[in-house]
TrEMBL record:
Sorted UniProt keywords: Membrane, Repeat, TPR repeat, Transmembrane, Transmembrane helix
The keyword rRNA processing is annotated on this UniProt entry: no
Organism of origin: Seonamhaeicola algicola
A single GO molecular function term of this UniProt record: phosphorelay sensor kinase activity
Name of the protein in question: Tetratricopeptide repeat protein
Amino acid sequence: MKTFHIHLVMLILILCNTYVFAQTKKIDSLKNELKLQHKKDTLRVNLLLKIVENNYKNDFQENIKFLDEAETISKEVKFKKGIAISLFYKGLIISRNSNYQFGDTYYKEAISLFNEINMHQQVINSYRNLSIFSNNQGNFNNAIHYRKQRVKYRERIGNEKVEEDLYYIGYYYYKIGKFDECISYYNKALLISDKNGNHKIFQECLTSIGNMYSHQGNHPLALKYLNQALENAKKFREPKNISDALISIGNIYIRIQDYDKAISFHKKALNEPNHDNYGSISHNLGESYKYKKEYEKSLEYFTAALNVYIKKHNRSDEAETLNKIGEIYFELNELHKANSYFENAKNINIEIENKRGLCGSYLGLGKIYFKKKQFNKALIFGLKCQKIANKLKLTDIQRDTEKLLFNIYKETGNYKKSLVSHIEYKKLNDSLFNKENIEKITQLEYEYKYKQALDSASIKELQLKKTVQTTSQNLEKSKRHYLWAIIGILLISIILGSIIFAQKLKNVKSKTQNVVMEQKLLRSQMTPHFIFNSLSVLQGMILNKEEKKSIHYLSKFSKLLRLTLENSRDKTVSLTQELRAVQDYLTLQNLENEAYKCTITVENTVNTKLFEVPPMLIQPFVENAVEHAFINQKENKKIDIRLRYLNKKLICTICDNGVGVNYQRYSKAKHKKSLSTTITSERIKILSKDLKIPGSVKIEDKQIYGKQGTLVTLEIPYIII
């Protein structure tokens, strides 16, 4: 294998050298012909232009000399075509050698002459080069203008192949943050490219639409488009489009915080033979390692990406990468370096009118000034960022900005605005990371993998049928028992393959079921009734100007919300953490009027630090007691929680002195079943199988013991660490 690679490399080098040699030979031949053509006529002009056409990437001075001569002769003999082509190549060569600072004037003069002599393709090429020229300068409005001019010209001459131009117009609108116009042009390009059979642009449109939805936080719809793009790219064997789709899917996993999966997709993209994406892949790997807090690796990849963007004069991506490096230095508490990178990024983003990038720069500077306790400056940058992010509906930046403003207002004593920002932050945070989106992503992944598996099974089935038919024809005249042996092996393979496939499908369905169950659990933990009551109590405290009490209440409430969300994401948590959540819930219920007498007793046989239990098993039953146990009972409300470890069983009892479960079941006032209790019971059954530890729920009316109230006995599945 190693020898083969060496031979392959040698072959490529030989082919490259052969091509260069042939090209050099052609240019030398044209130059020799030029020496024999002394007359200043169109023939000499065409020879000069032919030499430049074959050698425009090399020897800047010589090419300009040839073009000057071609232009001069063309003017003397009134050869408009020669003048126009000379100007076109001057624009191209000067642009390439001046970092796209000059060259547009020559293109514009060339277009005017091409129009006069009806050289339609050259007009189209000139508009394309002007658009590329403007893009590389970071002037996206001009880039849009020239692409639109190109579309109009194509339509005027009856050329309907405008899908590439529509795609790039959408791309430039995306760069300046006009997302409605962006998606409109992408969809136009998608329809026309499909009609014209342009699969390359069709795939790029799918990828770009996926990226658009991803940036707006609609990850399930983004994955749908990107998986379709990846399928099409593989079908047509387009390395660049495969790489683009892999990068974009990796970016989604960055946004939903699955960084290992993101790194996996970006490294797959890195293995594709497409070097144009090296900068963006390095950038995204840097971002993934940044979130994993592996800052050394992150800086290494970001620096590599920055060097690529600077070399390519890609101002937009250069600014974005500067923002990312600034974020890393902020995390490392090197505020001076962070400030320098954010300032550089801000200046570039203002220059090229990149509003999304400008948001990132403002947010970074706001955080730095907040950390320096320069709250007025921090507030200025925070409000600037908030204004742009709200206008563009950039959910992730809106959330981070609201968090910054919450902290600024809190530190400056503006508690009213602090509360508003905190509520807005929580709403945006829940929107970004809600379980419904994750369930949709899981479902899409499942459907995509299931479809792939079915397609693969169909292909294998066709191949097997073909093999059987061929074998039958070949063996009919000889040894028939070989045929039966082969058919037997094939049938066994199909059966085994089907069993393996069915098992994998069962595992995927099981994982999906667990995700759905966890979502139901999260939604059931804190009822809207409890949240509404808590916020109403808080509002009352604020209106009564009970500042200390309201801040204490808000702290308890936010702590309980955070703990509930954190616990819901883990398979198991320590028993200490689980009991703390229950204690915080009971404390919050009693904070206003001390309505309940609550006790939590842990026997000596239970070391809460050693036991790991599934989260949120106890709290739903405690909440049920608070909500329903004390109907018409105003005094002497008791809830006792006790944990003990007996016969290798972790037992938790929740006991109240309320009306009793029988009353609750048959009371006319109660017509619905407790959702959280039902979900918890279902969960215990699943968790018992998963952890291989028995678990159960038993709910009794204490009337059978001659007492008043309800007794819940939980046998909790556990792990001892």
